[in-house]
Write a structure and sequence with these properties.
globular, alpha+beta, 22% strand, YojJ-like (1
């Protein structure tokens, strides 16, 4: 593919705004849940992939009846409060990856992203970060999925700790719950 004709979605202002909306939503969900330290309590969890193509069928499978309620909220940034409320509900009640196109439209069907297979990795960005000890299957999948050519970024909210992570081309940026929100996070100041 001619690189001069390729749209650099990873640097596109509108896509970066979308990713920021997603990250801030996941951080808000993490900070609004106050039972992280209770034994046997699972917090909200979410896995989001921002994609450029019209379909993820080549590397994802439907996750049963786990669906995003598109009748309630179809676009991430159009009404951020409605997106936040919907995402919070989904993070507590559904499982699977949420697929969002670069224009902010959310796919109804939640998915399970397939693992990378030998030979498939030849044309992908190299994995720059190893799997960290804290990573569960959702985070390892997000790291691998971020390497695919039509995936701009993946984000996760850990249901065990409230950590929010972003994965870009096999690189990881992560913040523990106490680091979220900066100076207005009362938990982060302790």
């Amino acid at each position: 593919m001619d690189e001069d004709l390729r749209i650099a979605y990873e640097r596109h202002d509108g896509v970066q705004e979308l990713i920021d909306c997603l990250r801030f939503t996941l951080e808000g969900i993490s900070l609004s849940f106050d039972r992280w330290d209770e034994q046997y309590v699972t917090g909200p969890g979410m896995y989001v992939a921002v994609v450029t193509g019209p379909s993820v069928a080549d590397f994802a499978d439907p996750m049963g009846e786990n669906e995003w309620p598109v009748e309630r909220c179809r676009d991430v940034c159009l009404d951020l409060q409605t997106f936040y409320e919907t995402a919070r509900h989904v993070a507590l009640t559904q499982d699977g990856g949420l697929v969002v196109s670069v224009d902010g439209v959310v796919q109804r069907q939640m998915v399970r992203f397939r693992d990378l297979v030998p030979g498939e990795t030849d044309d992908l960005a190299p994995q720059r970060d190893d799997y960290a000890d804290w990573m569960g299957s959702r985070h390892m999948s997000a790291l691998d999925t971020s390497r695919r050519p039509n995936v701009v970024t993946t984000l996760t909210l850990s249901e065990e700790t409230g950590r929010v992570s972003a994965f870009d081309d096999g690189e990881l940026e992560t913040n523990e719950r106490s680091e979220l929100g900066g100076p207005w996070n009362a938990d982060g100041r302790s």
